[in-house]
Design a protein that fits this description.
The complex is a heterodimer of chains A (388) and B (337).
Chain A: H1 5-22, H2 25-37, H3 45-71, H4 79-85, H5 93-104, H6 112-130, H7 140-159, H8 181-207, H9 212-227, H10 230-244, H11 253-279, H12 282-290, H13 295-310, H14 312-325, H15 337-346, H16 355-387
Helix pairs in contact in A: 5-8, 5-15, 6-7, 8-9, 8-11, 8-14, 8-15, 9-11, 10-11, 11-13, 11-14, 12-13, 14-16, 15-16
Chain B: H1 2-21, H2 52-85, H3 90-104, H4 108-122, E1 130-132, E2 136-139, E3 142-145, E4 147-152, E5 161-166, E6 169-171, E7 174-176, E8 179-181, H5 183-210, H6 213-222, H7 226-256, H8 268-279, H9 282-336
Antiparallel strand pairs in B: 1-2, 2-3, 3-8, 4-5, 6-7
Helix pairs in contact in B: 2-3, 2-5, 2-8, 3-5, 4-5, 5-7, 6-7, 7-9, 8-9
Classes of the chains: A mainly alpha (388), B alpha+beta (337).
Chain lengths: 388, 337
């Protein structure tokens, strides 16, 4: 029986080939298409019918959306035409009319080129960081330099001063209260990510350390913060923070909210990093110690590089959450993208009915950033798998 | 030491600031009359003469109402889409993928505002609602449905009740119904359930993909059909892996229900916000809010822990039974010798 098997199999394969060769080309390509898409009614009767129903539903709703969004839509900033088209057609004119308020918030109109330049600079630095070549050993310092440069230029461009000091560049001073829209969203998310990650690493190290007091403090902090919603932390930042600070003057609302988001997301980052720390085997610590490395050197050169590489997808997910969470600052009256949209449309009775189109527009912006980030993480994971 | 010093410093600042601004503090305001009305309340009655404590309770119940409904819907949808992600049908797989990516990559607040605007701006007014068989009405005022009501009989005895259907009625003043879901509630439920379901779907997919292929082939060779395979072979094993991240998502859903404040659904955060603005007791209101959420989180974590104990106990018992079955001949063998 055993030695007959291969022969039998061989004959089956060859007969299959012969059959396939005799069939007309058209029929064969249909068959492979059916096989690839899984639409084989004999093999999966229920799922195939479900597919067909889904296809019908999709084409119906796709057509309805196309009708609403393209065929009946108004693309010019013409309010009367928009009112006429409602509700059968979308009014994309609202974006043409209000884009500067949506994208840049209350930033003075004549100075908006500065906000645009700042955003373009951030995007360039981001795409530079996403390229694999920059992460190789010799180039990494250039990455740090470009981020520091980016941060300095951002501050100078947006405020017109150098951290409050006038440096006579001929730029008018813009208070941080007037910052808004996309630059504010990017600022809030990048700064909180940059601060929350090291803080989270420290918290994770504290939670896995041998010192009982430190350990208790870290776990209490992490569990407390993870148990409450971000909104309550933001309320705290805007109502309670002034009470906690010395004197009656308190830092401005942007800094308070930044501190709130950072402290909040550090707890989540810490849990991700802790999972990574636990995944590194204890032998690594022992080996490093037997080489004579101290605690910090062990963590810095042996443990953390492995731990962080293990949990990179989790970390990127965390970054995406922080990016999405910045939309909540609109509740404490900061006008980042979501808030700026409300600012642009709530005050204008003519355009207020077309909020949905505005939401779809900024939803698309958020989607592009988040999708690019998650795509980057998947690519990185894939390349890691290739290496190992 | 450093931490204690920091905490002491913050405490001193707070005390100093409170004193110098002449702000009253303490929880005595909870027994004062609230003076504001809550649009919708669940299970208990509330009017503006009730006190702040009662208002917080009403808000908490509203939070629970939306969270529990959200948990159920998001679990079902997540299970459906997560299974769809592993379907052999390309179209089903693509649709599930698109569903997950679209919902996961847009902030929940934005989705919530979108649903709300859609309900408020694109539905007909309550004078000309959509209606299905004069039983269900959908308009800008919300969704009205028939509801099963307890009706006491004439004798008023406790057990002498009858169940009757209360149907919504419509006249020129609008729709009257005993079961009316406000647009805020619908928008919040929709947004929370859909957003969370995308994450649940990814968790379910990871769980399903973790089950070795051999298991499915074995189940097929025993003659189980597709439904039986997923019900009795794949899902029980996937459940082990799914539980911890699922708990996290459930906790996230409850915490995310706090976004209700953005559309004016009277959940516990909205109530705390109103109370804070009226009384100026920021410290007290925010600490009450945080304590309530911490308690909710602990309760859910405890509940899911119980669930884990139950399921792992069952598996352990199974394992023990198997061990015993395997060991028995061996043991009897030794006793004979």
């Amino acid at each position: 029986m055993h030695d007959q098997m291969p022969h039998h199999e061989h004959s089956m394969v060859s007969s299959h080939f012969i059959k396939a060769a005799h069939q007309p080309i058209q029929a064969r390509s249909w068959r492979t298409l059916a096989h690839r898409t899984g639409l084989e009614f004999k093999r999966h009767p229920y799922q195939s019918s479900l597919s067909i129903i889904l296809f019908a539903l999709l084409s119906l709703s796709g057509w309805a959306f196309f009708e609403w969004g393209v065929l009946n839509a108004v693309f010019l900033p013409d309010e009367a035409a928009c009112q006429l088209a409602r509700p059968e057609g979308a009014c994309w004119g609202v974006i043409a009319e209000k884009y500067s308020l949506i994208l840049w918030g209350r930033f003075p109109f004549e100075e908006q080129w500065r906000a645009l330049t700042a955003v373009v600079m951030i995007m360039l630095t981001l795409s530079l960081s996403a390229s694999g070549a920059m992460w190789r050993h010799g180039h990494r310092s250039w990455l740090y330099v470009s981020w520091v440069g980016c941060a300095l230029f951002f501050e100078i461009l947006m405020s017109g001063t150098f951290f409050g000091i006038d440096i006579h560049l001929g730029l008018t001073k813009v208070e941080s209260e007037l910052w808004g829209g996309l630059p504010l969203t990017l600022l809030l998310s990048i700064v909180s990510i940059a601060l929350a990650t090291p803080l989270g690493i420290l918290l994770a190290l504290a939670r896995t350390s041998d010192m009982p007091l430190l350990k208790t403090f870290a776990s209490t902090y992490i569990e407390l913060v993870r148990g409450v919603p971000l909104i309550s932390v933001l309320f705290m930042a805007s109502f309670m923070f002034p009470l906690l600070m010395p004197g009656l003057k308190s830092p401005d609302v942007l800094l308070r909210v930044l501190a709130g988001i950072t402290l909040f997301s550090a707890a989540y980052t810490a849990e991700v990093v802790r999972a990574g720390l636990l995944s590194v085997s204890a032998g690594q610590v022992e080996a490093a110690q037997s080489l004579g490395l101290g605690y910090w050197a062990t963590q810095r050169y042996v443990i953390l590089p492995q731990a962080l590489a293990h949990v990179l997808p989790g970390l990127v997910n965390n970054f995406i959450s922080i990016f999405k969470d910045t939309s909540l600052v609109t509740i404490v009256s900061l006008y980042e993208l979501t808030g700026a949209l409300g600012l642009a449309l709530n005050g204008d009775a003519n355009w207020r009915p077309f909020k949905l189109e505005g939401y779809l527009f900024i939803g698309l912006i958020y989607f592009c950033f988040c999708f690019a980030l998650s795509h980057f993480s998947q690519k990185f994971q894939h390349s890691q798998h290739h290496h190992s | 030491m450093a931490i204690l010093t920091l905490l002491g410093w913050l405490g001193y600042n707070t005390w100093f600031n409170l004193k110098s601004r002449g702000i009253q503090s303490g929880f005595d305001f909870l027994t004062e009359s609230a003076g504001f009305d809550i649009g919708e309340h669940f299970l208990l009655a509330f009017d503006s003469s009730d006190n702040y404590g009662w208002a917080f309770l009403a808000g908490l119940l509203n939070t629970l109402k939306v969270s529990i409904l959200g948990l159920i819907i998001s679990s079902l949808l997540g299970l459906l889409v997560g299974t769809g992600r592993t379907s052999p049908q390309t179209l089903i797989r693509w649709c599930s993928r698109a569903y997950v990516e679209c919902l996961r990559n847009v902030p929940l607040l934005l989705q919530l505002l979108m649903w709300y605007v859609l309900l408020i701006e694109y539905l007909p007014s309550s004078e000309t609602p959509y209606s299905w068989f004069n039983a269900i009405y959908l308009s800008q005022e919300g969704l009205s449905m028939p509801m099963l009501m307890w009706q006491p009989h004439e004798s008023n005895a406790f057990f002498d009740v009858q169940l009757i259907w209360s149907w919504p009625t419509m006249d020129r003043f609008g729709i009257h119904s005993d079961m009316n879901l406000s647009p805020e509630f619908i928008a919040l439920t929709f947004a929370l359930s859909l957003y969370t379901s995308a994450f649940v779907a990814e968790i379910v997919r990871a769980g399903i993909e973790s089950v070795p292929k051999g298991q499915i082939e074995a189940a097929k060779s025993v003659g189980l059909n597709n439904f039986q395979i997923s019900r009795f072979v794949v899902l029980p094993q996937a459940a082990q892996l799914i539980r911890p991240p699922l708990t996290n998502q459930y906790l996230n859903l409850i915490k995310n229900s706090s976004l209700a404040v953005a559309i004016g659904y009277p959940d516990v955060v909205s109530i705390a916000n109103t109370a804070l603005n009226q009384t100026g007791r920021a410290l007290e209101c925010i600490s009450i809010l945080m304590t309530l959420y911490l308690m909710l989180s602990l309760m859910v974590a405890w509940g899911m822990g119980r669930f884990k104990d139950a399921s792992s106990l069952a598996i352990e018992k199974d394992q023990e039974a198997q061990d015993r079955a395997q060991q028995r001949p061996h043991r009897t063998g030794t006793s004979h010798a």
